[in-house]
Amino acid sequence: MNWGKGGQGTWCGLSRAVSWELGALSQLSDRSRKELREKGPPRVLEPLKDVVLIEGSAAKLTCRISAFPDPFIRWSKDGKELRDGPKYRYVFEDPDVVALVVRDGELADLGQYSINVTNPFGQCSDSARILVEVPAKIQKGPDNTKARKGATVTLTAEIMGEPAPDVGWTKDGEDIEEDDRVFFEIGSTTTTLTIRRATPEDSGKYEVYVENSLGMDQSFARVDVA
Fold it and tell me: Which PANTHER family does the entry mention (predicted)?
């Protein structure tokens, strides 16, 4: 009876010891597996996504990565490195989430942005585009013009907008019907109205207008032919 109790106590003690050692080995094994899993080249877990930036606002590119030891992060735009500062802010939101904030959006921010993640075991990278939307606007309107009969008159306006705006010209409130004498051209940043062999009937108030999904703008000029 005493042997039975003693034996039972011995087995219980041995069982607890084995259980503790197995638990310790299990924790060690889990930790080792975790370390083995985390150590190595960085990996992109959630890639960058294209974002739309409205002029005057801010945009954020976010990427989730896995990297151990802690990596070195570098952001670039169209192959040129971006320094952390007032315009571009490097943001570390969580241990595995990094972001780039682009402030004071403008058309020049349009482009491809890349993140490069490096640690002693290797590197990884990813890219996305920032698409900039800018309300249509006339940066510089056409000048008032005086011309002699038979001369060529040109009116030029500087324009901008993204998406590219629709452009039109009017004379005295009526849309201009183009022909080989009166016509207008539209470029990426300018539009020009040309009047060949001008006559006094071409005198009047001319308007250029631009419009896209974000807004519209217009400008006027006076033409006098004598």
Answer: IMMUNOGLOBULIN
